[in-house]
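Students often ask why we bother predicting the structure of a whole assembly rather than each chain alone. The short answer is interfaces. A chain on its own may look different once its partners are present, and contacts between molecules only exist in the joint model. In this exercise we take two input lines together and write out one structure for the complete complex. Read the inputs first and try to guess which parts will touch.
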Amino acid sequence: MKGNQNCSGKYVYCIIKCPEDKKSFGNIGFGGEEVYTQEYRDFAPVISDAPMKEYEINEIEIETHRKVVEKIMEEYSVIPVSYGMIFKNKKLLSISMKAGYKAMKKAMKTIENKAELGIKVILPKGATELNGQMEQLKSDFIDSLDEIAVDTKQLKIFSDRLLLNASFLVDMNKIEDFSDQVSQFVVKYDTLKIQYSGPWPPYNFVDIHILGKKQRGFR
Amino acid sequence: MFIFDDILLRSIGFSFPGLDLLWVFEQMRDFAYKEMHDQIKDKIKENRMLYELGEMTSVEYFKMNNILTRQLKLAERAKSMNIGQKTDLLGNEA
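Now the answer. The structure tokens for the assembled complex follow.
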């Protein structure tokens, strides 16, 4: 942990399209602080007052960040912001909003009324391979889910047991169709473990870098 | 302040065999740090996946997660130490 912890900063959870200033989402932020909007043109970062510090990987704090974004997602399409993004004051946050405004507008067009859904296909414990059916399985999943989704991202295979790791950007009104398709796969590939998760904020489909890495701008 | 560093010297054709070897070692070290960092991150994700699949108890999961998080912090600290970074005497980064 670095910096002066007594100094209160503005922690950013996500960005929404909402021209309303100080719209409150309740005391659900870090340390039970109020989560509210700070108006910037037609967008608003969703923030809470929080200590200026380096937010390290901490399960409880990540969970707080996640829950706040989930709550906002119930009402708005969100541009997700990386965990740990804090600004010294409102003015610095406004400067960043100004710098990223165009990129945010573009990102919002991509993700409005959509959510991210995740699929992981996993080998059962003890199994070592898939008897050469790997490519067929991949195209089976990706091709048919791709038809329902707006966009697809294949993600890193971080475990030897992981056969497929992909995220799909899906229209809110097509989530049910998508889930039905996944259910069919669960039946078809009953020897494999299929982990289906979401809806998530579209983390894998928005990538806005506003300030340099050293300045810890949002991403 | 303008500084002649090894990359600049190399670009204008100067080469010192000893320094070249050192440079190669620096590149290898940086690559190793990145590899180590990525591997730990993958293990954290795998640990979470196994927990979500019900193949680990919460006690096992949190125990392993604490170990891996500590390792990741150490790897990040090693990466941010920038041992090979050149700094001029007036305090400007090269």
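Check your guess against this: Residues 90-111 of chain A form the longest helix (22 residues).
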